[in-house]
Amino acid sequence: MTGRVAAVNLGVVTEAEWAGDASGRTGIDKRPVDGPVLIRFDGVAGDFIGERAHHGTPDQAVYAYAEEDAGWWSGELGRPVPPGGFGENLTTYAVDVTGAVIGEQWLVGSALLQVTKPRTPCTTFAGFWGMPDLIKRFTARALPGAYLRVLREGEVGPGDPVEIVERPAHGVTIGEVFRATSLEPDLLPRLLEAPDLPESIREKARRRLAGR
Question: What is the pLDDT of residues 19-70, one digit of tens each?
Fold first, then answer.
């Protein structure tokens, strides 16, 4: 089955005490749009980002989360998790996001995107869901979604296919990176095999390995 974009979601301004930004504003509340949007090198046109120190950099210009994984959470929590409920820009269908290889390239609409790193859950995420233990539960589930770098700007809309056009041979996946940095430190040496992984994560892996 060909993967596709189930929804494209843009953040609205939310003011809350739990917002991570010093201004108390966050764009984690993302909602579906009807038509295509422009994916730029620095992020998605029209998307609000409150805390640019941790979001919106070139290595995490776009965030993708799988509709199937959101469905699991819906059953776990006993409540709907709509598109954008994880703060994702792209809700995907039939795309193995957790199994995506670091450096893998996706052709989506007219944009070319590259898989860079997993999402790390934060207190803003927990506050948005109203679940103090969400970080612990999200980490244990280990289905973090993937941040994407924009290699070519373009338009992406709901229903667009997601075509994997290049996959590095090293095979280090989003899931492995997440587990290595949170649950399974024995996987840390694998991170050094992925040259497209952001240098900050590779350096963290080197420090942890040196400290053993």
Answer: 766 667 788 889 999 999 999 999 999 988 766 655 668 999 999 999 999 9
* DSSP-derived secondary structure letter, 108: E
Give the N- to C-terminal CA distance of the chain in Å, as an integer.
44
Rg of the chain, C-alpha, whole Å:
16
| Type of residue at 128 | F
Range list of β-strands (E), 80-199: 90-93, 105-108, 111-118, 146-152, 154-156, 161-166
The dihedral sign for the CA sequence 83, 94, 138, 74: positive
Secondary structure of the chain: what % helix, strand, coil (to 5)? 25, 30, 45
Q: Is 212 exposed, middle or buried (0-12, 13-18, 19+ CB in 10 A)?
A: exposed
- The helix (H) or strand (E) run that includes residue 210 is helix 199-210
Evaluate whether 48 touches 13 at the Cβ level (below 8 Å).
yes
| CB of 39 closer than 8 Å to CB of 156 | yes
State how far the Cα of 65 lies from the Cα of 23, in Å rounded to an integer. Answer: 27
Beta-sheet pairing, 62-66 with 90-93: parallel
